[in-house]
Amino acid sequence: MAERTRFTLNGAAVEIAAAPGERLSRVLRERLGARDVKVGCEAGDCGACTVLLDGAPVCACLVPAQRAQGRRVETLSGLVAQDPRARALAESFQDFAAAQCGFCTPGMMVAATALLRETPAPDEARVQEALAGVLCRCTGYRKIVAAVMAAGRRAGRRRAAEGGVGTAIRRIDGAAKVEGREAFGDDIAPPGTLEIRLVRSPHAHAAFTFGDLETFAARPGIEAVLTARDIPGLNRFGVIPAFADQPVFAERLARFRGEAVAAIVAAPEALRALAAEDFPVTWQELPAVQGLAEATAPGAPQLHEGRPGNLLCEGLVQCGDAPAALAAADVVVEGVFETSFVEHACIEPEAGFARIDGEGRLEVHACTQAPMMDREALARILSWPVERIRIRPTAVGGGFGTKLDLSVQPFLALAAIRTGRPVRLAYSRAESMQSTTKRHPARIHLTVGAARDGRLRGFDFTGDFDTGAHASWGPTVADRVPVHASGPYRVADYRARTRAIHTHAPPAGAFRGFGVPQAAFAQECLFDELAAKLGMDALEFRLLNALDEGAATVCGQVFERGVGIRACLEALRPGWAAECAAAEDFNAGGGRRRRGVGLAAGWYGCGNTSQSGPSTIRAGLRADGALVLHQGAVDIGQGANTVIAQIFAQALGVPLSALTLVGPDTDLTPDAGKTSASRQTFVSGNAARLAGEALRARILRLANAGPGARLIAGGGRLGVLDNGKTHEINPARLPADSEGYVLRAEKSWDPPTRALDENGQGAPYAQYGYGAQLAVVEVDMALGTTRVLRMAAAHDVGRAINPLLAEGQVEGGIAQGLGMALMEEYVPGRSENLHDYLIPTAGDVPPVEVMIIEEPDPLGPYGAKGLGEHALVPTAAALANAIAAATGVRPRRLPITPARLRALIRAAEK
Amino acid sequence: MYNFEIERPGTIEEAVAALAAEEAQALGGGQTLIPTLKARLAAPAKLVSLSGIAELKGLRREGDRLVIGSGTTHAEVAREAAEAYPALAALAGGIGDPAVRNRGTIGGSLANNDPSACYPAAVLASGATVITSTREIAADDFFQGMFTTALDDGEIITSVSFPVPQAASYQKFEQPASRFALVGVFVAKFADGVRVAVTGASEDGVFRWSEAEAALSEDFSADAISGLSVSPEGMIGDLHGTPEYRAHLVKVLTGRAVAAA
Questions:
Q1: Same domain, B41 and B107
Q2: Which string of DSSP letters, residue by residue, matches A78-91?
Q3: Would the CB atoms of B248 and A902 count as touching at under 8 Å?
């Protein structure tokens, strides 16, 4: 019955028999092989699937394929091959590092190509407008807009592809991203692969019973129905094994809306023919606790046995005597601060593919931040030895912490094993939002005191964090927050207590900062209030109390070098003075718009908290002369592929182009740990440095050369130039090991930490990174809207391995912090899509002046520190302080939506 | 998405005939209907695509009126109405993002009558006439509450005829990301009086703010409405704003629209 539809795809005539109503995006990807078209929402919200239809950008997910009849369809891969404007964009996107994860890049570049065809040299506003329909979660848009403007003008700086530590080179994986060749979680499975559909709880808390599953499973086209009883091992997982409490399939009771209870495995057509109500399950909705107050109320429904009061765990750090110091302080301020669930909103929904290989091993291709953890968790669920499981991470279309936890992997594994056939699963946007982790909502009560001279006297913090239905990273948040809640300051009398509390909500887990941005919001806002009460300038107050080298942190840890907060704050000083003066002038003019300038600082410990967290990097010289780097640190867009390789190449003493890279694969790369806690540059970077140095030493020994010798590598040849003489090494003549290596080096590095005692005293991190940000906002006092005009950010990264990518982390972190501050609030059942859940668009992110501060860290590779999470820590606080400066009212709840801000302004007007 | 058939008629008559079938629904640009189908909020067995009907497209002047074919996209209105009716062109150019404007149509927007869509405000404030396959409907009769219109089953909007006001402005409070109007106010000044239409605010969909119209017809200045107040009763309350906030926005935006007109 399907009629034939004919159109041209990238200039070639195509003819397909689309199913009635089949989306153009699906037809392009699954029938015509155009996997460069990405699907992020299927609702026209994210724009990742943007294609040109007769030259005009449209969301392919909103075009029924039949409507393409007789028309011209162009996608990124065709444009890059055929249109010089797209080719210029491809170069420019790489020069500006405008693609981080690369998932939105096809949509961005297609929309930009249409723009450049119409307006060859667009201005900034025109570019922002043209890209308004394509969402990016990594970059903060500024580099994308700059790349488009530069491409239009054939201007902009050409970046080299080659360069050692400290050089702003292009990403080594950039070309694949801008040409649409990068393969993400849903890009691996061949068309026609069996698909999985999950049956999920429609209620936050419900008992359920299945009907006749056997009869259902016997329907034509259905290959398997899986429930908890089909799990051979443990129906439980969690990123922290001691707290593992999350079932793959809920048993009898669902604890959050969206929790999976069953999986249907079927051919794609059979799945499409199924309606949700066809599946035999009966729900009985039960009273649910939503929010911290309900969860901790007497008599509240309890989520887990053995966790009375819905209390998952507690954290504590204390030193000195906070209550006594506060009692003696000259000035005291206090406040209660609240934040919301924040959704990661990776533009790539969780997706993957699994199969059983010829040897009966399971192979899982999925987007992940933690392949080794995935393997161990699957081994427990399947009751299989880890050796029978191979995790092959795909490109990751944004992670930010949420892809540390399992999502699609157990379903893929169970279905592949049950059916013996390859299977695929891609979460819909709604599924992704319902079921994956969120940032913890926090309720923080903070009291801070100071002496008349401005020095801090007493700091008492209590914070409750809504960890949702399951533990996930709740314990990490409860542990990290008390260590960081002081901010990068000297606080002699300190107490910080935290609790992670269960509610019937999606699990709250890791999200860029692990609770620290929430704590910084409270602390940095109160510091402004304290400075005001003391009559001190907000910057001078922070400088007066800033942490110094040789001074103890609240954990009693002393860093003799590499404490960069003072340098960060000083870097903002000129801007602070100028912007404050400019805002005052502007406001003197009256009018409904008021300007304000705000500051905030932050710090963040890199690596696991007082726990071992090593990385191992392997490298070797093969008999064919290839210098191979086995690099298992997953690049989720932040740039580990490039940065780790730059460090290794520098240590080895060869150009990047001489390296052959082997990316993350549990069969091929040793454990480089998880991509989290801002640890990859620091920890895997150190392992790469050590591996590079070790391999170099072996090569030099072979040539009997001194340490200053130069390696000449490339083209299958390896020479050692020492004292003017070149010693040629012929690898083919050396004995090779079972993997084909004639020389190899494998090195691990684990940051030295010390356990925290019962008062949280010890050495939780081997290094901290520091940052300070300045925000200039304009508030429309009548509407309550906030426009962010400018931001400046000074971040101490120790040493910028790649300054271009470091800038990208800062800009991207600020964009997410801006969303958290002003618009993002996830409410289960109400904002499960990207038009009710708002994330910043191209027009929402202001220019960001990034100042890279380099206070070398004695332990970091070439002095480098972690950065990924730091960039977001102070942002919401800086914006809140700017809004308070503009309006005279003090927002204490995030997000500061126009309605909330207007209500505060109105209350103050009365 | 479940399966449905798509018919692509070439004339209005063919479209009307196709829509006579059981459970058939007209498909404009698809920017709202397609996601709705995905969410299974609607489940027609057959979609009748109007995009292939040439007579539904384009703008033309008819005396002092501007007539816009129902299949005209927002991008086309933004471009081609700029001279004849700048406030309407600006409204069209501010809908959604380029991808939406390249596909979405004025007819689709009006037939759907989303409570936060922009076009209903322009049509109601302009006192436009909605012309369908069977009749002409005055704007005041067309909108009948959110997602509800005077259209009968199988009736297709063919064009909208706008009287062009002496001065007009549309001011909307834009949602970031979606750019849907949290509240939008269209003010149109004609020789015989001022019309003010508000979208995004009321649970009853687009409405005329008659007190403001009376005040502005006397004195077309932002000051003229400063003494008025809007009741939050019946206003939408959701994640993005309370009824009180929306009521407040109605007044602020009306004042700004008058100032900008």
A1: no
A2: HHHHH-HHHHHHHH
A3: yes
Per-residue pLDDT of B84-93, as tens digits, reads: 999 999 999 9
Q: Do A848 and A810 contact (CB within 8 A), yes or no?
A: yes
Q: Do A21 and B2 touch (CB under 8 A)?
A: yes
C-beta of residue A805 within 8 angstroms of C-beta of residue A903: no
Closest Cβ opposite residue B98 in set A69, A111, A838: A111
Min Cα distance A87 → chain B (Å) is 22
> ipTM of this model?
0.94
Answer whether A67 sits within 8 Å of B51, measured CB to CB. yes
Give the C-alpha separation, A788 to A182, whole Å.
34
Q: Map out the domains of chain A as residue ranges.
A: 1-182, 194-287+348-397+402-435, 438-608+758-909, 615-749
CATH topology of domain A615-749: Aldehyde Oxidoreductase; domain 4 (3.30.365)
Residues of B in contact with A148 (CB under 8 A): none
Cβ–Cβ gap B102/A57 under 8 Å: yes
Q: Which residues of chain A have pLDDT under 50?
A: 1
Shortest distance between the Cα of B252 and any Cα of chain A, in A, equals: 7
Structure tokens given for B169: 């402005």
pLDDT at A1: 46
B96 and B188 part of one domain = no
Q: Which fold, A1-182?
A: Ubiquitin-like (UB roll) (3.10.20)
Shortest alpha-carbon distance between residue A521 and chain B (Å): 22
- CATH number of the CATH domain containing B229: 3.30.390.50
The rounded distance, in Å, linking the Cα atoms of A103 and A37 is 9
Query: Where a domain ends, among B163, B195, B214?
Result: B163
Q: Provide the shortest C-alpha distance from residue A891 to chain B (in Å).
A: 16
> Which are the contacts of A53, defined by CB distance < 8 A and separation ≥ 6?
A63, A68, A71, A72, A73, B102
The pTM is what? 0.97
| pLDDT tens by residue, B3-53 | 678 889 999 999 999 999 888 889 998 888 877 776 656 678 889 999 999
Decide if B201 contacts B80 (C-beta within 8 A): no
The CATH number given to A438-608+758-909 is: 3.30.365.10
At residue B2, the pLDDT reads: 54
Q: Which domain holds residue B151?
A: 56-163
- Is the domain A194-287+348-397+402-435 a CATH 3.90.1170.50 member? yes
pLDDT band at B176 (very low <50, low <70, confident <90, very high): low
Does residue A785 belong to the interface with chain B, where contact is any CB pair within 8 Å?
yes
